[in-house]
Amino acid sequence: MPVKSIERTPSAHRFPLLIKHLLQNVFSYTPDNEIVYRDQVRINYYTLVERIQSLGRVLESLGVKQGDTVAVMDWDSHRYLECYFAVPMYGAVLHTVNVRLSPEQLIYTINHAEDKVILVHSDFLPLLEAVKDKFETVEKIVLLADGAETRPDTALSLEGEYEGLLASATGDYQFPEFEEETMATLFYTTGTTGLPKGVYFSHRQLVLHTYALVNTLCSFRSAVNVDTGDIYMPLTPMFHVHAWGMPYMFTMLGSKQVYPGRYDPEMILKLLVGERVTFSHCVPTILHMLVNSQVINELDLTNWKVVIGGAALPRGLCRSALGHGINVISAYGLSETCPLLTGALLKPHMLEWNLEDQIPYRCRTGLPVPGVSMRVVDSLGNSLPHDGQSTGEVVFRAPWLTQGYFKDPEKSEELWRDGWLHTGDVGFVDEQGYLQITDRMKDVIKTGGEWISSLLLEDIISQHEAVSEAAVIGVPDEKWGERPMACVVLAQGYEDQVSEEELRNFFHKFVEDGAIAKYAVPDYVRIMDSIPKTSVGKMNKKELRKTFSE
To answer: What's the sign of the alpha-carbon dihedral 261, 264, 267, 271?
Structure first.
């Protein structure tokens, strides 16, 4: 029997899912809530919307047309938040530039994205000066300045300073209507090889992702819930997957928002306490930095909820955070998925457990959120059972996943082969439905025909009291192909108090308990002063493998 389509009344409005509609009701409930930037700026939602409208007029005066790309290079700020809305609402594409790229990667992304206008913080002017002679499409540059510095010494030709341009762009601006599939944002993700890949999203996808965040964090009774009364501060760069989409959600809710600018531990802690922040999200290395700061024991953090993503949440770090009163859980997604896919939501009966029993589930990759379909597949694409043991690649479908890589149809087809988005992550699903990522496919340690999870070994060594940070890699071995190596940073006060051999022996307890096989115990443990990080704060295993390849 053929499906039956709905009949459309000629006068009925076909409501497109556009980013501007996320602002539609911000005045209804808490319009006087503040958006705070460091210790410099305080505005309410009335002013935020006025500034977004003024930015629309500024884009018009700069000659930006619908479909043009506007790039932003800024710290996490109220200005960035305004660009999140005004640029795509105008019909242009917002390119959130990774300011930590090498000069070669930076100019590649600017040219590949076809940036027409760049809004750049004064701190990043030297980055643009170094590549300005290679611009292919850039026509105008606007300065973003803190304080009174509106005329910096630079070789770049500037159209003006952001605040001055907004002040001169008076009057109401009506953002246009257009198709919901219009491209809204673009950013670049760096892999282990090759040039950065452009990931893009439409208005429809960003709105649906925002609704998914609300559904996940505001609807389920779990360890971490949020509502309009929460005070939000991102600890994820706003160039990284739209700060995980959280600024869109908290703006729609009308919550108080706090933007820390440059990531300075002292400023972050000052804002965290002074503004009474209740919700943040970050990669594990940021939480590690804060938990190990010298003033952490002087602070009351019992109202702070933190979602960890970007990398696995080690049990040792989770236990340490909970010990300081921080309510922490894990979530999972990719740059290509906008990013939300799963969250470590505790089921109702788990909320009655003590914290020690909750820790394994708080650190789980999580349950698929509403709207997400998930499979774990073998090398032939066959679904594997949810038995907590059968491991394969994790693939997804959801309405907010990117449709491909910008101007790269070959890699786009590879990403979406067989109609499922392939994550490149290996994992299993347990009997309760929780996904557990065991490794990136490129990070799995292959030894003598067996696979060893580097994430599992990192989770184990993180539970040693002397370990502050750890990364496990595979190093070449003539007999077995690869053998595991654990790179470790010691916690403060344990320097010269523990040996590499003692740390290696710590793994044997987990062999006796059956958590790992004997062959999974690392052959080598190396105590290091620091572990290299990527541009978004993850452990840089590529650099470690390069260092220890011999």
So the answer is: positive
420 in any annotated domain: no
Is 451 marked active-site? Answer: yes
pLDDT for the residue numbered 297: 86
d(CA 279, CA 56) in angstroms, rounded, equals 30
* Structure tokens belonging to residue 386: 């949810």
Is 189 noted as a catalytic residue in this protein? yes
The identity of residue 436, as a single letter, is Q
Tell me if 504 sits within 8 A of 522, measured CB to CB: yes
Cis ω before 385 (30° cut-off from 0) = no
Three-state SS at 533: strand
Catalytic residue among 275, 336, 458, 469: 336
- The span from the CA of 506 to the CA of 377, in Å, is 33
Contacts for 457 with CB less than 8 Å, ≥ 6 apart? 472, 484, 486, 507, 516, 520, 522
Which one of the listed residues 150, 189, 228, 534 is annotated catalytic?
A: 189
Largest CA distance in the chain: 78
Catalytic residue among 134, 228, 451, 543: 451
Known catalytic residue at 336:
yes
What distance in Å separates the CA atoms of residue 541 and residue 533, rounded to the nearest whole number?
A: 8
Residues sharing a CB contact under 8 Å with residue 504, sequence separation 6 or more, in sequence order: 486, 521, 522, 524, 525
CA pair distance 459, 455, nearest whole angstrom: 6
Residue 459 Cα distances to 314, 323, 359, angstroms = 5, 17, 12
Whole-Å CA distances, 148 to 58, 80, 124, 164: 20, 19, 17, 11
* Number of structural domains in the chain: 2
Show which of 190, 216, 247 is a domain's final residue: 190
Instruction: Give residue 497's domain range.
Output: 445-547
pTM: 0.87
Report yes or no on 113 lying in a domain: yes
Place of tokens 């971490």: 224
Kindly give the pairing relationship between strand 231-232 and strand 69-73: unpaired
Which of 402, 289, 398, 278 lies closest to 336 in space, CA to CA?
402
Q: Where are the beta strands (DSSP E) in 23-173?
A: 34-37, 41-44, 69-73, 93-96, 115-121, 140-144, 160-161
* Predicted pLDDT of residue 419: 97
- Residue 321 tokens, joined: 């955070």
HSE (side-chain half, CA atoms, 13 Å) at 519: 11
Exactly one of 446, 450, 509, 546 is catalytic; name it. 446
Last residue of a domain, one of 161, 190, 219: 190
Averages of pLDDT over each 10 residues, the chain, 550 residues: 84 94 94 97 97 97 98 98 98 97 94 98 96 98 86 92 94 92 96 82 98 97 96 97 98 98 89 97 90 86 96 93 97 97 97 97 97 95 95 96 97 96 96 94 82 89 93 89 93 89 93 88 94 86 86
